[in-house]
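User: Quick sanity check before I run a bigger batch. Here is a single chain. Can you write out its predicted 3D structure?
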Amino acid sequence: MVPADFRIAKAPLRPAAALIALAILAVLGGGLLSACSSAGDSRLTVFADPGQYDYYSCDQLTAQQKYWEGREQELKQLMAKAEQSTGGAFVNVIAYQADYVSAKEQLQVLAATARAKKCTTAETWRSNSSIR
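Assistant: Done. Predicted structure follows.
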């Protein structure tokens, strides 16, 4: 016969063990699902609209890409300059970080749209002359 104290102490452990097992399964399941995709597959963005450039021509995409590359470089320089001053990290987070992330996401969306439209970019350009 099992003592009464043992049954009372054992009952709360069962739901806790079930929650731990569920948490472990959720983490493992998430890990398995994330292994099936690559970073380039996701068009999930916070600041950029993934369908924003769907109706742009390749020339328009190139112009937008040049603009956002310039904006990204400008923000990177401003962030580097702010880092040199006292409280620079705080200034970066408040003033520049959101714009910098937005510029990077815009460039990702532009690159994905250009790939989908099979636009000729610097990475995909092929010369029509032969190598001598």
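The first helix runs from residue 4 to 10.

User: Great, the batch can go ahead then.
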